[in-house]
Write the structure tokens for this entry.
Amino acid sequence: MSTTPPPSPLQFPLRLSCYAITLLALDVWRESRGQSSAWPGVLWCVLNRARHPQWWGNDVISVITHKWQFSSMTAPGDPNTVQWPAASDPQFLAIVDLIAKWEVGTVPDPTNGATYYYSRPLTAPPAAWGDVQETAVINGIHFCRPTC
């Protein structure tokens, strides 16, 4: 792990639409269902990408829906793309509550600015990410950000 200081907290005017909140909650639910300790990390990975627009998108919705970025949302053949929470799913409702807490500034970034993450079966960051540094490991999910 690096001693590079994390970027400053998310400081851009962002009021998420109901659609963006729902999509963000669905992404976190699909990507880390059953791993509640990792939910803030997955949430912040999306937010950090929105904070630093690049090829992956320039806002929460475009970041989540960019093909191949969050496999549970856009990767053809990923079994999670057809998973939908029940209206009363306690994990989904807890994720929606987490997003509400983030909106009022009470969910710090446990990833220290990560814009990528990986977990099993991967054992290292994909080469396509370029040079990255690991910034956190939460419940077996490795969070990374570019080194430059």
